[in-house]
């Protein structure tokens, strides 16, 4: 029973042992709480698209629509919600593999400039469709870094997708440079809606969204930043966010030039 605490009020070794046991019990309880919260979140997130699928499939099946146009709209909702469901399941699977330490990185010396150019190229269609700009600047002296090129690309594409998603006008600026001889910094900045200061500490949490409805509208799953953070840490890096409501958001990632693939020991 986790509620039965060890009661010893002494400052000696037995006292500190009792404190250690109590702390452990608290940690375990916290772990149980977050785990059940996590499952509650998953069920909710899965149930929402399924409700749409069920509802609109029924409307179509029973011919409860007036015009062909209306029918097309319902079909489109079914299509979009199926895509969301696939994305959600895919992201959940990725995240759980990462948390169990079951993803293997293909570590090699990579050219960050090349990875960034590829990511910007892939984002450029969406950027054009939204009528905003994207600019990439990389320092001349950018060193090769030890990492997984595909996973790096996944990080940047995710952050660029968010920047595009939450920006109505202006531009996205991507920069890369060396911080010192041992590390490099990549920043992805937008001129979008920004994030309220009070929400900043939570945005890397699973399923956390500043505005549920807006994120849904944009097709978000609320898992993107949790995955990004894990991928950054797996490659020895750190990520932080700076944002001003109504002005824009800047994500900064610092990677060590070389790390041993152990996220805990590779901290800068
Ligand atoms: P989502 O799939 O909802 O975008 P993420 O984990 O990628 O989930 O992001 C979590 C939340 O952080 C988003 O719902 C959004 O509210 C906020 N957010 C992320 N990136 C940006 C950004 N560039 N500008 C404004 N808000 C952002």
Automatic annotation (TrEMBL):
Q: Where in the cell is it found?
A: Cell membrane
Any idea where the HAMP domain is?
A: 1-33
Query: What cellular component terms from Gene Ontology apply here?
Result: plasma membrane
Topology relative to the membrane, per the entry? Multi-pass membrane protein
Q: What is this protein called?
A: histidine kinase
Q: Which UniProt keywords apply?
A: ATP-binding, Cell membrane, Kinase, Membrane, Nucleotide-binding, Phosphoprotein, Transferase, Transmembrane, Transmembrane helix, Two-component regulatory system
Enzyme Commission designation: 2.7.13.3
Picking any one GO molecular function of the record gives: phosphorelay sensor kinase activity
User: Which residues of the full-length protein are shown here?
Assistant: 207 to 474 of 474
Q: Where does the Histidine kinase domain start and stop, copy by copy?
A: 41-259
Q: What is its main location?
A: membrane
Q: Which reaction does it catalyse?
A: ATP + protein L-histidine = ADP + protein N-phospho-L-histidine
């Amino acid at each position: 029973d986790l509620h039965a605490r060890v009661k010893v009020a002494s400052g000696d070794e037995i006292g500190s042992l009792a404190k250690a046991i109590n702390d452990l019990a608290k940690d375990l309880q916290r772990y149980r709480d977050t785990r059940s919260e996590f499952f509650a979140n998953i069920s909710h997130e899965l149930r929402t698209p399924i409700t749409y699928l069920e509802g609109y499939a029924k409307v179509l099946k029973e011919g409860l629509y007036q015009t062909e146009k209306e029918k097309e709209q319902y079909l489109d909702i079914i299509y979009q919600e199926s895509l969301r469901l696939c994305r959600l399941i895919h992201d959940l699977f990725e995240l759980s593999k990462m948390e169990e330490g079951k993803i293997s990185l293909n570590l090699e010396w990579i050219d960050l400039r090349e990875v960034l150019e590829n990511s910007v190229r892939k984002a450029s269609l969406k950027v054009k469709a939204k009528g905003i700009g994207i600019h990439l600047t990389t320092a001349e002296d950018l060193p090769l870094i030890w990492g997984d090129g595909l996973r790096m690309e996944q990080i940047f594409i995710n952050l660029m997708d968010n920047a595009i998603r939450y920006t109505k006008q202006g531009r996205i600026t991507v920069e890369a440079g060396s911080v010192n001889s041992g590390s490099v910094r990549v920043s992805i900045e937008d001129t979008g809606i920004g994030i309220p200061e009070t929400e900043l500490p939570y945005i890397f949490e699973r399923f956390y969204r500043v505005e549920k409805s807006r994120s849904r509208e944009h097709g978000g799953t609320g898992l993107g930043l949790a995955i990004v953070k894990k991928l950054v840490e797996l490659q020895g890096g750190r990520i932080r966010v700076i944002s001003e409501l109504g002005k824009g958001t800047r994500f900064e990632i610092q990677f060590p030039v070389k790390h041993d693939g152990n996220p805990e020991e590779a901290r800068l």
